[in-house]
Amino acid sequence: MASRVLRIGLIPGDGIGREVIPAGRRILEALPSSLGLKFEFTDLQAGFETFEKTGAALPDKTVEILKNECNGALFGAVSSPSKVVKGYSSPIVALRKKLDLYANVRPVKTVLTAAKPIDMVIVRENTEDLYVKEERTLDDPAYGGKYAEAIKRISARASSRIATMAGEIALRRQSLRANGVSSIHKAPLVTITHKSNVLSQTDGLFRSTAREALAAPRFSGTVNVEEQIVDSMVYKLFRQPEAYDVIVAPNLYGDILSDGAAALVGSLGLVPSANVGEGFAIGEPCHGSAPDIMGQNIANPIATLRSTALMLEFLGAEEAAARIYAAVDGNLEEGRLLSPDLGGKATTEEVVQDILRRL
Ligand code: ATP
Ligand code: MG
C-alpha cells in the first residue's frame, strides 16, 4: 500500500514550547507503518525570541511555508512580554487570521477512574462575535459623559460552519470510541450555547443557524442536539461536567468556557487544542511558555501529544490519532510515570518514553 505523506510544520516558539514540540514529532515518527502514513517535517520560526532577533514575531517565510508546503503544524507556545512591546503582537492570533483557522477546538478529558470523570470538547467560533474588535469611545451627556461600545457580529455562514464542525467532531468521537479510545459517553451529543433570551438577534441567529446545520441528514438520528443558556451552562459545567460531550459556542462564550473547563482537569499540561480551517489544522497545547519550569526537563508533554493527535484527526488520520490518545490514557491510568504537575516524579523524557512504548 502506498503511504500518504503528511507535511508538518514545527513551530516550537518560546520557553517549554521547545521542550514539548519535539515530543510531538517523535510520536508521529513512532506511529506504526501499517497505518500508511509518512511524515515530513519543516522547522519554522515564530515567537518572542524570533521577534527580538528578526523584528517579526511571525516571519513571512513561516506563513508562506505553512500555506504552500504543509498539511498541518504543531505550535508550542510564545511568551507574552509583561509590558506592551512596540511592534510585537501574538503570532498565533496572526496565524489564525492568515490561514483562516476559523475554529478553536479544545478537548478536556480526565482519566475515567477519576471521581468525576470528564470527557468533553469545546468548539469555539474564532473569527467574529465581540472579537471583531470594532470598539469606539464616545462622549454623550445622555450617558453621563464618556462611554464606549463594541460590535458583536454574528453571521449565519460562520455559525453554520462551526456547528457543522461540532457535529462532525461528535460523529468522529463515536468512531474514535469504536477504535479503542476510552470515553464516558455512549451516544454523540452536541450542546449549543448562547444567550438568545437576551440577545435575540445575534445569539438568536447563532442558535437557529446551529440548529439548522445540526439537522442535516448526516447528523439527524445519530447526533443528539440540545441547547444551554451560557450562564446556566457555566453552573452545570462545574456541577455536572460529565453531562457534556461536544459544546459549540460563539467566540466570547467559547473563550470563557474553554478556560473554565481546562481548570477542571488539574494541570494545564494535559489540555490540548487545535486551530482548524478548511483542510488545515495547527495543534497547540493550551499552556503558555511556562518560564517558571523551563529548561528543567519537567514540562508535561501530554498537552502536546494530545494536540498532535487532534491535528491528525483533522487531517483525516483518525486511526493514528486513536493510537496516540489510547497511549496517553494508558500512561495516565497506570499513573506510574507522571510529571511533577500531576504529583509524580518523572521527567519530560520519561513520560515521552513511556507513551512511545505504549504506542
Ligand atoms: P505565558 O506568558 O507564556 O502564558 P505563564 O507564566 O502564563 O506563561 P503558563 O505556561 O500559562 O505560564 O503556565 C501557567 C502555570 O502552569 C505555570 O506555573 C506553569 O509552570 C504550569 N504549566 C504550564 N504548562 C505546563 C506543562 N506542560 N507542564 C507542567 N506545568 C505546566
Ligand atoms: Mg499563560
From TrEMBL:
InterPro entries, A to Z: IsoCit/isopropylmalate_DH_CS (IPR019818), IsoPropMal-DH-like_dom (IPR024084)
Keyword NAD assigned: yes
Protein keywords: Amino-acid biosynthesis, Lysine biosynthesis, Magnesium, Metal-binding, NAD, Oxidoreductase, Phosphoprotein
Enzyme class: oxidoreductase
Pathways involved: Amino-acid biosynthesis; L-lysine biosynthesis via AAA pathway; L-alpha-aminoadipate from 2-oxoglutarate: step 4/5
GO BP field: isocitrate metabolic process; lysine biosynthetic process; tricarboxylic acid cycle
Coiled-coil segments on the chain, per record: none
EC number(s) reported in the record: 1.1.1.87
Names of the cofactor(s): Mg(2+)
Keyword hit for Flavoprotein: no
Gene Ontology CC annotations of this record: mitochondrion
Any single Pfam family the record assigns to this protein: Iso_dh
Domain Isopropylmalate dehydrogenase-like intervals: 7-355
Catalyses which reaction(s): (2R,3S)-homoisocitrate + NAD(+) = 2-oxoadipate + CO2 + NADH
Classification via SMART domains: Iso_dh
GO molecular function, one term: isocitrate dehydrogenase (NAD+) activity
Family, as annotated: Belongs to the isocitrate and isopropylmalate dehydrogenases family.
The protein's name: homoisocitrate dehydrogenase
